[in-house]
TrEMBL record:
Record's GO cellular component terms: membrane
PANTHER family on file: HYDROLASE, PUTATIVE (AFU_ORTHOLOGUE AFUA_2G14860)-RELATED, MONOACYLGLYCEROL LIPASE
Residue ranges annotated for the AB hydrolase-1 domain, each copy included: 36-269
Name assigned to this protein: Alpha/beta fold hydrolase
Tagged with keyword Hydrolase: yes
Keywords on record: Hydrolase
Molecular functions per Gene Ontology: hydrolase activity
Record organism: Streptomyces acidicola
């Protein structure tokens, strides 16, 4: 069994797209004339976070799972990673692939970026899915945990530190797929370019930078796109009341909470998430 086994039977393309001077890694699948669905991962994550979601969505939609700016195998600018820069990179990618209007699916940091994009470019966002989204509060304990675990995973040679970093995302560890994802992430984390850029990827875990990038209620109130908030009741990076506050701040947003689920609902509970997402997308259309 492999994470890529999930894509058997799917006509997909692993590619690189030139986006405003940066080479952006992407997994693309689905009918070229279908509505675009763009999947964005979390802090120091990568597109493999969505391999369990692409097949179901690619039956109808043009899917893009993207390594965000500075992440995975996408180009790495020598500057702190802050939300406006991630949004600019996203828009550059959309322009490059000819996607005028898209459905955004963002997990953790990806949800933060997606929400910001929806508030700045309402005409380009058809719908919004926020999966255990971060960015609405400053929690020093959580931020320190992310910094410490990620630095250990990237800068220490023992693969066990990468495994522990990934386990932070799950309520119940999947031994087989978890081990393969560990190897994928270990390869990314131990690439020299990633290690040299790590401090930029962790910039939003510093209070001052996070403060100026916070998703405040007034910004979330500007979001016009139909919005689905998905949360895990065992999310170690944010409790359910945080999700409730997000859903309350975005006009008309709907909240779904998965039981026995951590920070990766789209992966850990794919059998629940995929039909929920597809029903939501059908309504949003």
């Amino acid at each position: 069994m492999s994470i890529w086994t999930e894509l058997i039977g799917v006509d997909y393309r692993h590619t690189y797209v030139e986006t405003a001077g940066f080479r952006t890694r992407a997994l693309q699948a689905g009918p070229e004339d279908g509505e675009h669905v763009v999947f964005l991962h979390g802090t120091t994550g990568h597109l493999e976070a969505f391999v369990r979601n692409i097949p179901a969505h690619a039956e109808r939609y043009r899917c893009h799972a993207v390594d965000m700016l500075g992440h995975g195998y996408t180009g790495k600018p020598d500057r702190p990673g802050e939300i406006p820069a991630y949004v600019e990179h996203l828009m550059s990618y959309l322009d490059a692939v000819g996607a005028e209007r898209v459905h955004l699916v963002g997990e953790s940091l990806g949800g933060w970026v997606s929400s910001w994009a929806a508030s700045e470019y309402p005409d380009r966002v058809a719908s919004l899915q926020l999966l255990c989204m971060g960015g609405t509060k400053i929690n020093p304990k959580v931020m320190e945990r992310l910094k410490t675990s990620t630095r250990a995973a990237a800068l220490k040679g023992d693969v066990s530190f990468t495994r522990e970093r990934l386990k932070l995302l799950w309520a119940e560890w999947d031994e087989d797929l978890g081990e393969e994802l560990t190897q994928v992430r270990y390869g990314i984390y131990h690439h020299p370019d990633f290690q040299a850029n790590l401090h930029n990827l962790l910039a939003l875990q510093e209070p001052e930078a996070r403060e100026r990038n916070l998703l405040r209620p007034d910004r979330m109130a500007r979001i016009k796109a139909p919005t689905l908030v998905v949360w895990g009741n065992k999310n170690p990076l944010g409790d359910v009341p945080e999700a409730e506050a997000i859903a309350a701040a975005i006009p008309g947003a709907r909240l779904e909470v998965f039981n026995e689920c951590g920070h990766w609902p789209q992966h850990e509970k794919a059998e629940l998430y995929n039909p929920l997402s597809l029903a939501f997308l059908a309504e949003a259309r």
